[in-house]
Design brief:
Length: 295
């Protein structure tokens, strides 16, 4: 992979550590132009390692702090750019922007070392993604209301349930390798272990990785893209209310039921299990929000 092919760095939650290693290797093997200094390449290598999301199989080995503007710098070279959009999206998804913060376009431009135009365009994209709200010449996080969050969970239940149905059909027809199903079991166990040990931020990431891995077996990129967008909104809107769940065993049992239906290639059971799980999570989140408002 040459530098020209890296025009848009995919520092998103759909790219994991294996891809990151490939990108770093490409830098080591590449031939930067004269205008691209060794220092900028070294900085880029560090940036990719720090900003890329965690692999669903490597949560236990990674202890990465939330991304901040100081940790995510944009590097612009002759034929290469890590986009401002990807930098700011990583910041938002890693918790670098708090619920009550308003961050100005000019502040972002200054700290990222770019003009206001790419910052403005990036913020517009983040707004269209449903992650921020424009406020003057700046943005705030877009926090979903209880009603909006409920609607997202209902939509997720339907679409993720359909994905599980398709995934189970593919398992039944022998299109899914046993190792891929085994990796789901590993993610489910990891999610449970992190939850009961109180490592809630990492548990959320492992849980999301599990659900997205199940949906990915359906082999429908449109479905996966829609679910990714909803997961982004859910994580941003529920991060502030994370607390030790009272239903950890229930969640683990629900995950077990989903994976059992998948292993058996039982499409109706897989769909029903996913829908029940998503709607149960919706009810638990709404209950938590109600308790927090009353305190």
């Amino acid at each position: 992979m040459g530098h020209q092919t890296l025009t848009r760095m995919a520092v998103t939650d759909s790219v994991y550590a294996d891809n990151t290693e490939d990108l770093i290797a490409s830098l080591d093997q590449g031939h930067p132009s004269e205008s691209q200094s060794a220092d900028s390449t070294d900085t880029l290598r560090s940036l990719i390692s720090a900003a890329a999301p965690m692999s669903p199989t490597r949560h236990q080995d990674t202890h990465r702090p939330p991304a901040t503007l100081d940790a995510i710098k944009v590097i612009v070279c002759n034929n290469f750019r890590m986009t401002v959009y990807d930098s700011l999206r990583a910041m938002v998804m890693r918790g670098g922007l708090r619920e009550d913060d308003r961050i100005a376009e000019s502040q972002l431009a200054e700290q990222l070392g770019v003009s206001r135009t790419p910052v403005r365009e990036a913020l517009q994209r983040l707004e269209s993604d449903g992650l921020v709200n424009a406020q003057g010449r700046g943005v705030r996080l877009r926090m979903l209301s209880t009603n909006e969050l409920t609607q997202v969970y209902v939509a997720r239940a339907g679409l993720e349930g359909w994905a599980a149905f398709l995934a189970a059909q593919r398992v039944a027809s022998g299109e899914v390798a046993p190792a891929r199903l085994a990796s789901l079991e590993t993610l489910a166990a990891e999610t449970h272990e992190l939850t009961v040990s109180g490592e809630l931020t990492r548990a959320v990431e492992a849980n999301r990785a599990l659900h997205e891995a199940v949906a990915a077996i359906a082999d429908n990129t449109v479905v996966s893209a829609a679910l990714e967008r909803w997961w982004d909104q859910i994580i941003i809107s529920t991060r502030h209310s994370l607390q030790a769940p009272e239903r950890a065993q229930t969640v683990h049992a629900e995950h077990t039921a989903i994976l059992s239906a998948l292993r058996n290639g039982d499409a109706p059971a897989a769909r029903a299990a996913v829908e029940a799980h998503a709607l149960g999570t919706r009810d638990a989140v709404n209950e938590t929000r109600t308790k927090l408002r009353s305190t």
